[in-house]
Amino acid sequence: MFDLSKRANRDLIIAGENAGKPVYIVPAAKPTYEELVRLSRKGSHWARITVEGLHNLAHGRLNMANIFINPVTKGGSDEFIAVLPGCKVTIEKMSSDCYKILYFERDENYFTQEETNAAGLYRVVSEADGWDTRYIKDGRLKSEGPHHVAISDRGYEDASFAAEQAALRIANAPEVSPNQMKTHGFALHYTPGKDKIGGLVHAKTAFNPLNDDVLNASALQLAQTMYDARKIKAVNWVAEFGGSAVLTQAMRILADQGVELKTHTAYLYKPKSRTNVAVKQAMRLNLSINGDFSQSSALDIVGNMDALAVVKTRSQHDDSYRLGHATTAVRKFVAKAGAAGATGLAVAGAGCAAAGVSVPVISAAAIPAAVVFAGALYKAAKGAAGVGVDLLEVAAPETHDKMKKGGWV
Fold first, then answer.
1. Residue 157 lies in a domain
2. How many Cβ atoms are within 10 Å of 173's Cβ, its own excluded?
3. Rounded to two decimals, what is the model's pTM?
4. How many domains does the chain have?
């Protein structure tokens, strides 16, 4: 009698059967793959990206779709781990020039998430008592504008709360009109998770935003949204706080594929990752960068440390960046560096180092008189209470925003 069990235990081909390199999957990994396909067919944005990424193996394009391809040495076989939305996938490159998917390490936060806390894109519309937030399953912006897209930090209880916070912050971007936001709403790219992204608490991400594979899944989704919107004019991508690291990774993914977004703009509000890394990726995409690329408070070391490096990068590679722009940016940096004593010295030292300026000893005597003078003016203008407000915004941004909304600061 014919043995069906042997046939059931064979590797399944999922792509490349008729063209390209065959892509197989072992039986043990089949249930997760089938669940991904089911979610993709139901309209899940993240699942679609993951399934397409696996199918792209047949055309040798996995490296084009993902930042993190980690090689694994195991028993002499040629294996690697691909980081995709919802899972890390262990894949073997066979000697017969085909691929075999061996194992899925699932992130259950993706497979079990509800639409109130799903990673991805949301439509946010103004209502009488706040903002209505709704999940966009296909992750695409509508063609009609205006288009303002907030890229949120992590650490919010759900997407609705993230949208409320983002609404207060992205209105500070040069290309964003608060009146337009109230009339037309905005879009939110949301990254779920308990911990904030970057900053001095998570310095590894702050200093090397391109190397944090935990953010790769969210960045891939954002990159797909940005790619799908490439033909829409005047899209403003505004990252708030740690969202700067997600935007930086997404821009890198697109730039590596040769994508250009000439009519789009990018802006970082109180970024918690290095701004010079972000501006380099933005320039690779030919994004329009109008005026300042970012905004930070005087006491934010991470947000300010690349200020001089950004001036240097834009002066060297951005033809629209004139001497007047550079002079204004340097003056702002000097004022911030002298704003709060020891913190100002740390900002100045970090900024000089990031820009490639050698400062062997950071002391009061080593800082130009202009810094001290500007700091004195800053303190005189704002007073101790003003410096305290800056400290509150750095340490507890949600509390600061609530107080500002209530007119208390």
1. yes
2. 24
3. 0.75
4. 3
